[in-house]
Amino acid sequence: MAAQETIARFWLASKAELEDVLLHEQLIQRFEPTKDPRVAHEVISELYCRYVHLCRMLDRCYDQTLQVQKRQVVTVLAESANRRMMELQLKIKQMELSEFTYIDGALRELHLIPEDVQVVRPCYFPLERSEEFVALRSSRKLEPLTSSSSDELSASEESEEEPPPDPRRPVVRRDRAKEKRVAALNLILAHEKARHARIMLYNFKAHPKKFFAKPREDAILDFHYEFYHRPDQYMLIPVKRTVFTWDYRLKKKDVVDFPYYRPPGWVEEATVESKPRFVAEVKAEQAVEEVEEEEDNTEELIELMINNRAARRIQRYWRKYQERKRLIRERYKKSAFLGMIDEMERGPDLGARIDQAEAERRKRKLEFDEAFVQAIKDEKARILQQRGPWIMEDISDHIRAWFRDFYDHAHAFDRYPEIWEGGTLLVIRGETMTPDEYMKEQERKALEKKKSAEQKKKEAEARKKLKEKEKEKRLAEKEKIKEMKREEKAREKAEGKTYDYKKPEFATNAYLTMQEALASYEKDWYFVDELENKEELPIMEWITLDKFAEVHQELRPIVDEVLRAERELLQKALCKDNKKKYKPAKPKKEKKKRGKGKKGKKKKKEAPDLTADRTTDSLYEELVEKNVIRTYKKRSIDDYIGDYNYAAYERRNFLDQDPPAALGEVRDIIRSWLFGMGPLAIPKPKSFCLMGPRGYGKTMLVEAVCSETDSVLFDLSPAIVAPISPAEMTMFLHMILKMARILQPTVISIDEAHKVFYKKVPPDEKHLDPTKLSKHLLKHLIKKIKKEEKILLVGTSSAPWLAKMGKFKKSFEKFLILPKTDYGSTQLLWRHALNQKVGIGKDFPLSPLAMVTKGYSPQQILDCVKHTLTIRRRMRLVREPLTAEELVEHFLQKVPAEYPITDKDYDKFLKFYRKADKLAKQRAKMIKAREEALAKLKAKQAKKK
């Protein structure tokens, strides 16, 4: 109940935020048009920041709302808000002509930090799977995804491998078989020694006289020995904790004979002197009485002493506990007062409990959906049973009243509407002819029959001329619009683009949909108190109204059939009264709809299913056997480590420079492309290609895309496709596309995609015939993927310039280049890699190390830490702390030595990227024009001097 109230209040807060954002957008539409791109960039980026926060709130409402009728409203709003956010992001990219955008000015204006507008994974990801799919996926063991470019960037899982041989030390190879034999021998010896010790202990207990020798006077009577084993100490030989070095012939220590402690009932043996018998007996009786009295007093004193000691111990520990709590409380208050901690920060336990509660609430959606469907069925059955006869009678009365009214005014009966036209619903809507219109139509038909052939011909020619004039007018209007667009483009080219916030490119359909959905919600839910509906039950009044209308529509055709026959009887009687020949009414034929779209183009016929005779299981089995469907490591896009370029905004907007991007910006771009892979209908690219040098994490990003969307991975790398002959390629791609649609969401991966479009195939790869896929990929796979389908084609390339530009560019909708590592990203990589190892202090000098190794790939940095901090080196960290020189020496001592990618090699990626990507191509042209204009200006200034 408390959770429902919290979600309801959160939804009200989200609705208030939505109203504020829509009001802010309405104010923006009142702004005057501007030609300054910086002003327009600031306005749009500020609006984008507001939408990011709004989308996060609406996404959480969509994820946690259980009431089905409210969820429908929230779904529309969440879809529209996310679509609007993506439109604004695309607008910013078009203004900056780059996939890498910077909105620092809006962040300063709204007092935000980059994390506040960072693209995050929606909470409703991934798309839930059916039980059948889960069973199918778990039925076969899949092969893991591999990278032919050795691009496996593993930051979290590092195997403990032996370092490469040091040239200064002799190479000693380990004999694994010998080590196993020695370990087995040590284990057997340990157990045998323990067995001997147990036998010796039994012999000493069973036969003490035989095995215990008489102690000598100078022998040690008390020998203290304890078996000591530290829990965190690694034992060289795994031995059972049996002490087999104990000398059982020594006398054991008497644990009772202590000088300062006498337990209850303890009596010291008194030496008895030889005296007369009767005197000894008297003395003995007295001694027994004294001992009994002393025993009573001793027991009371001992019990009191034990209780006092226990009480003191309890009090001491209780005071320590209270003092410790007081100190923690005071320290917390002091830190909160100084602003060192956030009082609203969630602890790890609280966060885990909240996530668990949200997951449990999310699972209940299916239960609420089933209950809602059952309520609809029950309500429909109730209406049919209780109100069905009354509804049919009402329909009949209404149609008969129409017959009577028509007969009274026109003395005739109108044509009965056909079912495909809508039936007698047209009568209710008033879309049929009135009696006056019917009489005028009959008069017109009578006059039409009296006209001669020449008059009919003249009227037909006049109608034809009128149609031609209307057609010419429409063509002239279209030409006028085209001319206005040409003039506007020419004006933009000469004077610069004008940003008008009232145009449809700013006020899009998503914005209008949000306004309509919010107005509809406020109208329908105005009298509904959402906080009172603690069980989140459906609103039955709305269901009753909907089902009543549905039952009405279902029963109306049945009544129409009966009343149609009744109308024919009335028409027959009318003809008999008027002494006319009765002609039965001919049913009006339904017009065939042409298979054309809005522009008159014929719809393409769907290709026949080549695998219609095969089951889904058999297709899945075949693709698994061919290693096309593969498994992957569970990763997150956040595992891709990298920082942002915080100086790019000023350099791009104020200094007119083209700053290099940073690795951290790649995460936001890829996440924004994945929004359409969830349950909401959000636009997404059909394909994209990741380009970058080896070791920059391309394969890791592909695995992260699959993990975050819980997609099925199809591998179409050249090595996988090699066994498929060119004749079977069409069937093969059809099978993949069919299974990809069944198993949505799916990711189709092509590793080293440039090999599919080789300009010239290398001799060592001719046996794979990698280019055979390029002949069928675009036609039989990419073009057939629909935009609304949750299918994504992802390619990776480490040498894109080896491919044919035309086919490569057509196959991928987006291209993304992975930036070189800068100082910030390198420092984060070193910190992450060293934090994985125990014994490295937080004061380790990362800044100079990051400055020296700037430009090295993430894989090189992680490999350096893995190979330098081996087990042997970590054992010496206590006495020999790690230094930055050791990590730098790793790159220099390798044969051949490792160096970062050169600017010349990286320029090949940039050159291809500026040709392949649309925005990068436009930006390159803009920069070139800007440089030429600057050069002309400098030349003019030089002439003046």
Protein architecture, described:
- The protein has 945 residues and is mainly α.
- Helix content is 57%, strand content 3%.
- It has 30 helices and six strands.
- The chain has helices spanning 2-29, 37-64, 68-96, 104-110, 131-139, 176-206, 208-211, 277-337, 348-363, 365-410, 425-429, 435-450, 453-495, 509-524, 540-577, 616-625, 648-653, 664-673, 698-709, 718-721, 729-742, 774-782, 805-811, 823-835, 846-852, 858-868, 871-875, 884-893, 903-916, 918-944, and strands at residues 629-630, 687-691, 712-715, 746-750, 791-797, 814-817.
- The protein has a six-stranded mixed β-sheet, with helices on both faces.
- Strand 4 (746-750), helix 22 (774-782) and strand 5 form a beta-alpha-beta unit.
- Helix 29 (903-916) crosses helix 30 (918-944).
- The longest helix has 61 residues, at 277-337.
Q: How would you concisely characterize the structure shown here?
A:
This protein has 945 residues and is mainly α. The protein is built from 30 helices and six strands.
What distance separates the N and C termini?
Answer: 82 Å
Q: Structural class, judged by helices and strands?
A: mainly alpha
Task: Determine the number of helices (DSSP H or I, runs of at least 4 residues).
Answer: 30
The pLDDT mean sits at 80
Walk me through the topology:
Layout lengths: L1 H28 L7 H28 L3 H29 L7 H7 L20 H9 L36 H31 L1 H4 L65 H61 L10 H16 L1 H46 L14 H5 L5 H16 L2 H43 L13 H16 L15 H38 L38 H10 L3 E2 L17 H6 L10 H10 L13 E5 L6 H12 L2 E4 L2 H4 L7 H14 L3 E5 L23 H9 L8 E7 L7 H7 L2 E4 L5 H13 L10 H7 L5 H11 L2 H5 L8 H10 L9 H14 L1 H27 L1
Parallel strand pairs: 2-5, 2-6, 3-4, 4-5
Antiparallel strand pairs: 1-3
